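Hi R.,

As promised on Friday, here is the backbone we talked about, encoded as structure tokens. Could you run it through your design pipeline when you get a chance and send me back a sequence?
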């Protein structure tokens, strides 16, 4: 029997296709090899060395999906990883596979227990030439569970982060829940983030609940912030418009207040700065109403400068003797503080009304506790001086009055 030329060609083609199918099935059946190839391609595109020490899984249903465990991503030769995650699930379209990592188009990415080192990440980003900085796409979104961002002396624990879609020219929506931690200070948050697009120049809005918790005090607030985001040498939002509807509690103290701010936010090399900013505070009871210009910076400690005016002396504050107490003049003030973020260290307050001037040092939690205790001590826990040309006490009029209160614990560490 003679086989025609056409039949022989079909047999050769069929054999070749069968051989390719066998090779492909053998290749796919070894997910660790697939993982190594994919990680090598993605790492090359990002300028990172990416490895996986755990068991890998590879699926093709609905498009290629790779599940990796104990993933480590670092700049080649670096001691500290940019990212380490217990589990990473990456689903990609076939176009990404064909591009061999040149196109960073993903269907979905899921991260379990990722840890990001801020310093290592900054060094990696600085090592990338601008032309090599690539923006990935996530058509079916990003999911993060039990993550952590680690900085110098602080961390952000991320219980959950969900981004339904990440496309360069599309609006971005995200929800996140977690807490900022530094020493005994915790700042839990549950926020929604909206941006016109995930890129520099986008208009960003952040809304949600945020708290400041410490062993003996707590502040809870509803946050609303917005502004244009600029990326490059750090992060900038100029201007940032922020408002907080808040409540401060400590022992018997329960103080509701509203705070608003408008000014430039800059984040660079681990430092957060706001200067110059306009701020306003409105409240009840012992919370004063004031408007001020502010300068704020935070790295491992906070630095605050306020220069403003109290509209009136709050009724809940200790009554001022005449004639100071009868004056309706506003009270210009300057407040300076440097120390922990909880305002537990020494602050300095300079306050005036007409010809009366006060220069005092105090710790805010101690003053609030003194007020809360119904002023069992006749003098507040502060140190400083006061000068007034006239003072009426017990029916007697004193002139040229100078008062000095000394507290060694406050004087020795005065700012």
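Update: got your reply. Pasting your designed sequence below so it's all in one thread:
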């Amino acid at each position: 029997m003679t086989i025609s030329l056409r039949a022989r060609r079909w047999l050769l083609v069929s054999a070749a296709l069968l051989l390719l199918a066998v090779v492909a099935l053998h290749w796919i059946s070894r997910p660790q090899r697939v993982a190594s190839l994919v990680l090598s391609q993605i790492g090359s595109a990002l300028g990172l060395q990416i490895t996986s020490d755990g068991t890998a899984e590879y699926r093709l249903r609905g498009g290629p999906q790779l599940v990796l465990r104990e993933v480590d991503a670092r700049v080649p030769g670096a001691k500290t990883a940019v990212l380490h995650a217990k589990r990473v699930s990456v689903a990609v379209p076939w176009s990404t596979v064909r591009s061999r990592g040149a196109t960073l188009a993903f269907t979905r990415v899921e991260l379990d227990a990722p840890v990001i080192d801020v310093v290592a990440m900054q060094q990696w980003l600085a090592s990338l030439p601008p032309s090599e900085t690539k923006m990935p796409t996530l058509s079916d979104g990003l999911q993060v569970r039990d993550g952590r961002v680690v900085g110098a002396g602080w961390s952000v624990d991320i219980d959950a982060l969900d981004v339904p879609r990440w496309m360069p020219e599309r609006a971005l929506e995200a929800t996140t829940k977690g807490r900022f931690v530094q020493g005994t200070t915790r700042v839990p948050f549950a926020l929604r983030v909206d941006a016109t697009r995930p890129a520099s120049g986008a208009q960003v809005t952040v809304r949600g609940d945020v708290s400041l918790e410490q062993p003996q005090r707590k502040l809870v607030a509803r946050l609303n912030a917005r502004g244009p985001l600029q990326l490059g040498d750090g992060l900038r939002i100029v201007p940032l418009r922020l408002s907080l509807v808040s409540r401060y509690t400590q022992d018997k103290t329960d103080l509701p207040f509203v705070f608003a701010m408008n000014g430039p936010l800059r984040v660079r090399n681990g430092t957060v700065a706001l200067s110059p900013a306009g701020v306003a505070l409105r409240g009840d009871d012992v919370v004063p109403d004031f408007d001020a210009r502010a300068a704020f910076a935070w790295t491992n400690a906070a630095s605050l400068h306020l220069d403003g005016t109290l509209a009136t002396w709050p009724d809940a504050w200790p009554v001022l003797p005449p004639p100071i107490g009868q004056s309706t003049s506003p009270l210009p003030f300057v407040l300076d503080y440097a120390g922990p973020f909880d305002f537990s260290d020494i602050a300095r307050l300079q306050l005036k009304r007409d010809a009366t001037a006060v220069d005092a040092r105090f710790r805010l939690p101690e003053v609030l506790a003194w007020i809360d205790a119904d002023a069992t001590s006749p003098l507040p826990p502060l140190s400083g001086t006061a000068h007034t040309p006239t003072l009426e006490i017990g029916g007697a009029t004193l002139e040229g009055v100078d008062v000095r209160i000394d507290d060694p614990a406050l004087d020795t560490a005065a700012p």
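One thing I noticed while checking it: The first helix runs from residue 5 to 28.

Thanks again,
M.
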